[in-house]
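User: ABC-type nitrate/sulfonate/bicarbonate transport system permease component. Structure?
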Amino acid sequence: MNTVTRGPVGRAVVNGLLTLAIVLALWWAVVNLTGMSPYVAKGPAQVWDFLVAGEDAAENRAVLAPLLARTLLDAALGFVVGMGVAGGLAVAFSLSRTVEAGVMPLALLLRSIPLVSIAPVIILVTGRGTQASVAVIGSLVVLFPALASILFGLSRASAQSLDLVHVYGGNRLTAMRKVNVPGALPSLFAAARVSVPGAVTGALLAEWLSTGTGIGGSIVKFTASARFDDLWASVALITVVTLLLYNFVQVIENLVLTRMAMTTAQG
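Assistant: Predicted structure:
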C-alpha cells in the first residue's frame, strides 16, 4: 500500500476507532451511572454476549440480520434519491437565478417544518407501507443539508478558470461541467458524509411510521414485548454500521481528493 493510500485510510481508521471508543464509553456511562434498571438497560458487554459470545448468539444474529439488511436498503434508497435531487437542484440553481427564486422558498418552507409533522401527509399521498414513502421520507432528511453543501461548493469555482472557459467560447453549461462541478467535489463528498447518517435516520423514521419493517419497525415491537436484549442489540448494530459507512465515504473522499491534489475536509 503506497503512502497516498495509507494516509487517508489510516486517518479514517483512527477516526473511526476514536468515535467508537467515545460511543462505547458514553453507552457504558448511561447504563451504569444513571440508575437504570438492569432488566431494561443493556450495556456493551451484555450486547456483545447476546450477539457474539453467548450460546444463542447465532440465532440472535439470524433474527436481526434481515432487519438490518432491510434498513440498509431503505437507507440506500433515501440516500440515492436525496443526493440525486440535491445535486440536480444545486446545478439548476447555479445555472438559473429564476429557478432558484422560484424553488428555494418552497425548499426553505419544507425545511422549517418538522419531518414528523409532515410524514403522515407523505404517507397518505404515497401509501402506507410502500417504498415510495420510504424514498420520500428518507430523501427529505438527506436533501436539505446536501443541497446547502453542494450549492456552496458550486459557488466557489475559480473565477480565472471560468474566464478561461468563456474566452474559448464555452457557455455556462460548459463552465459548470468543466469547472464548477469538479471544483465542488470536496463539498459533494462532505454532503455525502453528512447524508449517510441522515439516510439511516430517515429509513428508521419511515419504517417506524410507514412500513413497520426493518429495525425502525421492530424497535417498537421489541419494546412492547419487553425484548430489551433485541432492542439494544438492534440499536448497537445500526450505530456501528452507520459509523462504518461514514468512515468508508471518508476514505473514498480522501483517496479521490488526494489523487486530484485537492484539500480534503479532514486535512
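The CA atoms of residues 10 and 251 lie 9 Å apart. The chain is about 85% helix and 0% strand.
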